[in-house]
């Protein structure tokens, strides 16, 4: 590892100047420029497809630039591998966790750089002690010895953060690190980020949440269509200005809620319980209604939806769909009767990333498309084309591998997959997690249109503006129970957070 003195407070550590990158005929970066300074948290924002991920991967050594210049502490660099980037003190926390599920938490943190003692043996005690210290610093309780398989997205993300901190990185890049964290966990992460900033490190923070950008960062760079647009001190800009720069137009309605006629109850949940997960859940969902399910991460929201749909089991209670009892543990029956579930973790639960857009979009209806036991390519392509067109999936061809699409377009493919089943009731978990402001507006408009057409929608969301902007009624869960119910005209950030946390001061 080359020896570089730490930059003084305010000095440029990592600089990108007019960097370009193409993949064949596809131009990913036309002109990317960025300057990360010691003791600063710099936001990089832009719609999905703006080039942010390509910038990160070039810095991380996954890609090599085609043109332009990158300097680290004033010296020109061109990383040929991730190992070279890490050796120079650059750590990247990606949007989606990249952990080994069969290894322990500690083994994941120190993968590829385990400390050793006599005879080259791995010093497991030293690894465990350091992992414990890092989690204490983060203020979280995670067993260093447990396998990572089965951990929540929030815990997986925290392990990625611990891995970066263990590297003592001079440059720390965080790509949507808060996407699956609760408010308390976000506050904890921001406290750690600020302490790293105060130590003189340079941080880059990528987020689609403007409140986080304004709360945490001091400088913001905007990209659009692979091109650098502007860099501004956060204190001298506004949300409206940033949105205008990101999308090249004004976005007047992030939450385009259409009037819908709310009809009779189509789904009735009575006393649903699962030991240690949720207790005595009862509610109704009505035709044409968007019912928001709010609460902190870990409150049991996703688990309730999965149990109703049949992915998970429950110990007591009943589910009635369109007046008929819905058997437990049978997703196939749920689908057949008009219920669909768009999961929170689209990459692991909603998509097969190495398959095409067509294959993913038709995954839930393949048996319906088959004739005489045969699945015809033409029928499958026609079905996929219909939903790809309606949802405006940005892809050059339907045979494109889904894993290469942006996060927003992957979300659209998952939506298309389930809407192709023509459901009458839709459960959608974190509908806009990790997608840009323009795509958020498109997803919200689609949900509003579906409700106006008579679909009943249960929307699980950790974003209060989304819940307040889209829901006709809001249920709030806390510690596995329903802690509050609010109609649209009485739901406020304070009332929802009070119910979610039992914080008397929030009321």
Automatic annotation (TrEMBL):
Residues 14-250, 260-504 form the ABC transporter domain. Its main location: membrane. Gene3D superfamilies: P-loop containing nucleotide triphosphate hydrolases. It comes from the Bacteria. It is found in: Cell membrane. It is a peripheral membrane protein. GO terms for molecular function: ATP binding; ATP hydrolysis activity. One of its GO terms (cellular component) is plasma membrane. The keyword Lipid biosynthesis does not apply. Keywords: ATP-binding, Cell membrane, Membrane, Nucleotide-binding, Repeat, Sugar transport, Translocase, Transport. It holds the Pfam family ABC_tran. InterPro entries: AAA+_ATPase, ABC_carbohydrate_import_ATPase, ABC_transporter-like_ATP-bd, ABC_transporter-like_CS, P-loop_NTPase. This is Ribose import ATP-binding protein RbsA. It comes from Microbacterium faecale. The gene is rbsA.
């Amino acid at each position: 590892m080359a020896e570089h003195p730490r930059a003084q407070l305010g000095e440029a550590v990592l600089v990108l100047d007019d960097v370009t990158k193409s993949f064949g005929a596809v131009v990913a970066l036309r002109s990317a420029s960025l300057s990360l300074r010691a003791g600063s948290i710099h936001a990089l924002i832009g719609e999905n497809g703006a080039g942010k991920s390509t910038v990160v991967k070039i810095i991380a050594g996954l890609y090599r630039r085609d043109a332009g210049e990158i300097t680290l502490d004033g010296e020109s660099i061109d990383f040929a591998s991730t190992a070279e980037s890490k050796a120079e003190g650059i750590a990247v926390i990606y949007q989606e966790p990249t952990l080994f599920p069969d290894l322990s938490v500690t083994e994941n943190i120190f993968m590829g750089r385990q400390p050793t003692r006599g005879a080259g043996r791995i010093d497991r005690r030293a690894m465990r002690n350091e992992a414990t210290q890092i989690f204490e610093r983060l203020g979280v309780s995670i067993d260093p010895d447990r396998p990572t398989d089965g951990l929540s997205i929030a815990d997986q993300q925290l392990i990625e953060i611990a891995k970066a901190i263990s590297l003592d990185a001079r440059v720390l890049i965080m790509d949507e690190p808060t996407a699956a964290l609760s408010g308390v966990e976000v506050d904890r992460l921001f406290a750690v980020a600020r302490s790293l900033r105060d130590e003189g490190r340079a941080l880059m923070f990528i987020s689609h949440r403007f409140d986080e950008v304004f709360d945490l960062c001091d400088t913001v760079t905007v990209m659009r269509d692979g091109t650098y647009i502007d860099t501004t001190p956060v204190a001298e800009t506004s949300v409206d200005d940033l949105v205008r720069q990101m999308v090249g137009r004004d976005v007047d309605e992030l939450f385009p809620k259409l009037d819908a006629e709310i009809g009779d109850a189509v789904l009735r949940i009575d006393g649903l319980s699962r030991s240690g997960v949720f207790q005595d859940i009862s509610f109704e969902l009505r035709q044409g209604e968007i019912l928001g399910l709010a609460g902190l991460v870990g409150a049991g929201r996703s688990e309730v939806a999965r149990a109703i749909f049949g992915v998970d089991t429950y110990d007591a209670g009943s589910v009635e769909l369109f007046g008929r009892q819905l058997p437990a543990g049978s997703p196939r029956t749920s689908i057949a009767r008009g219920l669909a579930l768009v999961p929170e973790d689209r990459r692991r639960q909603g998509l097969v990333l190495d398959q095409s857009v067509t294959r993913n979009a038709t995954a839930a209806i393949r048996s319906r498309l088959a004739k005489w036991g045969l699945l015809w390519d033409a029928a499958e392509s026609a079905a996929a084309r219909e939903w790809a067109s309606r949802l405006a999936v940005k892809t050059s061809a339907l045979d494109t591998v889904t894993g290469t699409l942006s996060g927003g377009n992957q979300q659209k493919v998952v939506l298309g997959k389930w809407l192709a089943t023509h459901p009458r009731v839709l459960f959608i978990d974190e509908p806009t997690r990790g997608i840009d402001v323009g795509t958020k507006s498109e997803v919200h408009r689609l949900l509003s249109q579906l409700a106006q057409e008579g679909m009943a929608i249960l929307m699980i969301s950790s974003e209060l503006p989304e819940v307040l902007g889209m829901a006709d009624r809001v249920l709030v869960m806390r510690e596995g129970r329903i802690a509050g119910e609010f109609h649209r005209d009485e739901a406020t950030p304070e009332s929802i957070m009070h119910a979610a946390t039992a914080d008397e001061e929030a009321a």
